[in-house]
Amino acid sequence: MIDLQTSASLEGDSAMAFLDLVLACARPCCDAEAFRRLVRTHVAPLLPHRFSIAVLGSLTFDHLAIRHLVGVDYPPAFLARIPRQTKLSDRPVIAKWLCEREPLVIDPIRDRALLSKLEAREVDEFGLGRMAVHGRIDLSSNMASYFSFAGTAETVTDERAKFILRLIAPHLHSALMSIPSMSMANPAVDCLTRQERELIVWLAAGRSNAEIAKLRGRSAATVRNQLSVLFRKLQVTTRAEAVAIAATQGVALHRPAE
Fold it and tell me: Is 165 found in the same domain as 200?
């Protein structure tokens, strides 16, 4: 439903552009390319920028696991470098957004101190320029969509960019989630045994193989073999990835009694 009071707070062409965006997002995107066309056609008039990225990911402790990513006119070399698992300490911009859950506008000179060495290097190497970011987090706080618009026009003030981000993020989230290939479901999680789910809980608690073995009354070799089976089922290679996928699919990660 279109909030007429909100759209009325936009002037002239901007109000029409927002209404066009809302209508476009109400129609399911058949694939990632349809989402890219939507951004180029309907977001650019509201928030002029050079390139953007949309991410669906799961949040677990200090890690972000990227499940789906759509780049819109981003340099391919930049997209190729983005890891599917990242520590939030390497991405303080994302960490700040997750903490505040409010739109951010990052100026690469003014806000240099906020950027990690990795982010500063990316900004300089790829000429990302001024960035406007926002997204949506689900009620469980385990899954999020994240939108970053790089090279935003200097003619758009920080406050104006934040205002636009608040308006468009919910609709972009819906459009991104409507892409059939963007499903966050993982059938492998449904096939996990009770013991495997318990194992994930200990992983989430940061326990080592030796600690898990002691707590479960098993040998370290047995725990290592059980982890290998678990990783194959989930098609992951690290403990953090296993925990992130489980959290996204609703596996309770409350620490068990020791």
Answer: no
Alpha helices in the chain, H assignment, sequence order: 4-8, 12-26, 32-38, 76-81, 92-100, 117-126, 158-177, 187-190, 194-204, 209-216, 220-234, 239-248
Tell me the residue range of the domain where 207 lies.
187-248
Q: Residue 107 corresponds to which tokens in the numbers above?
A: 């100026």
Q: Residue 31: which residues within 8 A CB-CB, separation 6 or more?
A: 179, 180, 181
Task: In whole angstroms, give the CA distance from residue 218 to residue 241.
Answer: 24
Tell me the residue ranges of DSSP E strands in 40-122.
51-60, 63-72, 85-87, 104-106
Statement to judge: residues 171 and 199 lie in one domain: no
pLDDT tens, per residue, the chain with 258 residues:
344 344 436 778 899 999 999 999 999 999 999 999 999 999 999 999 999 999 988 776 677 878 889 999 999 999 998 888 788 889 999 999 988 999 999 999 999 999 999 999 999 999 999 999 999 987 555 668 999 999 999 999 999 999 999 999 999 999 998 998 776 556 667 678 888 888 888 888 888 999 999 988 899 999 999 999 998 888 778 887 787 667 655 555 544 545
Residues 81 and 162 in one domain: yes
Domain count, the chain: 2
Q: What is the DSSP secondary structure assignment for residue 42, as one 8-state letter?
A: I
Domain-terminating residue out of 159, 182, 205: 182
Closest-CA residue to 15 (of 24, 25, 26, 4): 4
**d(C-alpha 125, C-alpha 80), whole Å:** 14
